[in-house]
Design goal:
The complex is a heterodimer of chains A (257) and B (863). By secondary structure, chain A is an alpha+beta fold. Chain A contains eleven helices and eight strands. The longest helix of chain A has 31 residues. Chain B is an alpha/beta fold and 863 residues long. Classes of the chains: A alpha+beta (257), B alpha/beta (863). At the A-B interface, helix 2, helix 4, helix 5, helix 7 and strand 6 of A face helix 13, helix 14, helix 24, helix 28 and helix 29 of B.
Chain lengths: 257, 863
Amino acid sequence: MELTRALLNREEILRYLGYRGTEILPHTEKLIEDSMSQILELARPAYVYRRYSIWRPAERTEEKRILVKGTNLCLTGEDICRHLEGCAELYLLCATIGAFVDRQIRLKMMTDPAAGVVLDSCGSVAVEQVTEAAEQEIEKEVTAEGKQITWRFSPGYGDLPLELQQEIADILDLHRRLGVSVSEDMLLAPSKSVTAIIGVMDTPVWMESEKEAEKADREANKEKEVDTKRIQEKCERCSNRERCNFYVKGKSCRGGR
Amino acid sequence: MKQITILDGGMGTMLQAMGAPMGKVPEELNVTHPKLLKQIHHSYIESGADILYANTFSANRYKLRGSQYTVAELVSAGIRNAREAAGEAAGSSRENSFARDDGGQQTQGEEVAARRIRVALDIGPVGKLLEPNGDLKFEEAYEIFREMLEAGEAAGADLVVFETMTDLLEIKAAVLAAKEHTSLPIYATMSFEKNGRTFTGVTVAAAAITLTALGVDALGINCSLGPAEILPMAEEMLQYTHLPVIVKPNAGLPNLMTQQYDLVPEEFAQAMGQMLEKGVRIVGGCCGTTPEYIQRLQEVCADWEEKASEEIPSARQAASWLCSANQVVEINGVRVVGERINPTGKKLFKEALRNHNLGYILNQALEQVQAGAQILDVNVGLPEIDEKQMMVDVIKELQGILDVPLQIDSTNPEVLEAALRIYNGKPLVNSVNGERAVMDRILPLVKKYGAAVIGLTLDESGIPDKAEDRVAIAEKIVRTAEGYGIAREDIYIDCLTMTASVKQAEVAETLKAVSLVKERLGVKTLLGVSNISFGLPNRELINTAFLTMALEHGLDLPIMNPNNAAMMGAVDAYRVLCSEDSGAQAYVEKYHGQVVETKLAAKNAGSTGGVQKGQSVDHMDSVSKGQRISGAVTDAKQGINGSESLAEGLRYAVLKGIKDHAGEDARALLKEQEPLELVNGILIPALDQVGTEFEEGRLFLPQLLQSAGAAQAAFEVIKQYMASQSKQEGSGKAAISKGRIILATVKGDIHDIGKNIVKVVLENYGYDVIDLGKDVPVETVVEAAKKTGAPLVGLSALMTTTVVNMEATIQAIREAGLECKIMVGGAVLTPEYAEKIGADYYARDAKQSADIAKEVFGGLEAC
């Protein structure tokens, strides 16, 4: 894919920077414009994904898990299991804008930190767009079969262990195919990279009445206001908040909200 | 004699095709399915491969975590399978030849016996990115490779192949490990993307130059692309090396729909034929290729061998190259070497070294590059610091952000070696001289690590007065270096600039020596230009004149201050006048319509003359930077300036984050106000207001940092002023610092953006920040706290996983009985958690860290 100016959502960039609607002086405006141009110049957008069947082994213990066929990958935790309800398949996905952006961010953080943080935010928005493009491609593939995809879910969301980052990197052969690797602390390098899991729902009946379901969801949550509050608090404390696909849309990977 | 060596084809492709159970570690098959592996090797032998790549590509410690086998087990089994396949092929062919009737056709088996099949230990990337892209350390990568190499050699490999590499520093670690622990011949290939660079940005030329200099036996390109895409890259590579070039492409590009590669064996072999025409001598196939591809390739090679009667000499011309991983500089004209990374005579630079302030040094580097330096000299020698560690740290940081090649400058061989080891590319070593002992100590390092070297024309009896005598020393150096295997094009001679005020007559001798060295020895030359004017007024005039004279005498590399517009101007003009700048294009581009700037510069120099005699270059940067500000802001600022005082102007500049005006205003204000008045009366209150507005959400992060940057510009001016004052008055240390604060991102964590923001803000409140960097070991923090006695230590951690190390660091500081206060911050921390792990303060953001510092330092403020 190719990143374009139009894809770099300025509002998003400002949101990452904690902007709350005050006046932006021309030289700050210019900083943002310049950073966007730099990202377009330096980004090397690329992504890979593969589709897998999944199965849920009969449980002997309380712990829920989902196994991904043909791999050693085992998805654990309440949240991913709920997220993949009604799915018989999933996609593993990785998107990146490459290492050159990181180099420039390092340079700017040393020499002009204001430009550094803006560039960093632009990079986050850029990789989000690349991920989005991959997701759209997947969606097209899946819709053609009369199925639906779930939202993206990434390691570190909710109670899905961040350590799965490494497993996914191995399975997708990310180091060779995209130049992406996983650090000791389970973060991706280059930093502007994303791994994600997208479920394929072959029970579109549920989706047809998506709005109703959401409405029901909301009502259910109203009854459990305490619960919702607890979840919200968790989100506020979550280190993934800023790049969370759910949080941005006012939801939570722990359900509800 | 056979000119072409044929490599085998894809291994993974064959394993998949044969239905091998592909677990997490394909090398486990070496033990579990040896027959299958041997069968694959056999089929490649039969199709014509001269070298078999053993199935050991990813059998490294990192990839094998969780495997029941050790590195040694899988590597030896892999080599053994290939060895046995080769042995069986040779054995069966011998039996065949005994059974054969006299006069019969040569069988395939016989042909195999005639060629000796070699087995290569195949080593791919570790699978984790090296610093600074990732968190794998150079030394760790080295150890991982060493383990594989020792196992491979012990198991009987004939050579080692490093392939599919994308980081030049990683492959350098591998090559060094091979050279230091085995005697295996080394083939080294890297994988490039369509844009001609690897994932980490390495160019084909930089790879070729660096690997050639490191002394591998063959080098080239594999994987990633098909032959058509690789062809132009192979051509380029051939221009930068005299060594045999390897090409092992994929079977074309993968078809996105079918995931199959798009070339059939015939097409692949035809495309490879063009490689042979261009001069590639070692060929094979990577992903998607099978024995059939190699069979066709072998046929094309045999045809080619028949036609090509004799060896074609290499097309490559000897040339002088230096490079980083991303940029090659050919020395075929004047190239400016920036001299500013050097503490000699620079108070602020020395202070930066003592405080491990890498940011300051990087800024010096960046400024020079922006001013036009093409190579940077790096000297960080200071008696009271660990020069070796500092040199390594600075080089790592520099090559992590800048592309220019570096010149490693130290008199200490240990420092040179440590720097050469981790340098990513081909550097220039500064320097050796004609002393036998010095040459014997340093030249082997230059050769081993693939560098170029500077030779100073002095020896045991000092610097000769006469040009002829200096040339004699140069000749001795060149001869000795060549004796160590260093090519003449990698030797640069420094004929030594003498100070005109002391040795006036010898200025001409230096220039004469430059001409003679070039003429008689055919090597490149280099001079430290600025020495010429030492002790004279208006040094710029003398420097510029001498520079021009030296260039005309054949100087290639002037070591100088590129921030000096007059000297850079002399270089630019010289390039026009000697036709190096064809059509004066570069000159016109740079100077067209810039009359205004020249005037400004002159005015600026005048206004600061009283402050810094002879060092006015330090102020030059603010002029050129001034042009970056957008018109609207300038107008607004000028409006204020017209009606309000300078003080108001400075306050406004900080509030609005207008960096360039802040420096200028501070400079002007210093004529009327005491530095501390300026700091406490204007800068700090303005910063406080910015902080409050940020807290209230009226400013957002970039604005906070722009304000901090503006305040910093003012602080720099004040610091310089105070440094020059104390120099003049002979008084002690300038008393602007409010105290020392140590900052570190804890061990295991490489995410330091937050810490860097805090650093900027604290510095601008006037604190001396000792930045220990990221991934800082517990002991380093404790040591620094002990050594500096800093009353406040700030720790940051981004990850839940590394907060543990934060706790350990706090504990260690407490156990060491240090009095200092500790503040912590980071995305996952909360005030409660901070308290739980024993911190004194939790800082939500940079502003709060400044508040904490104010509380801790309280009345301690210096005056």
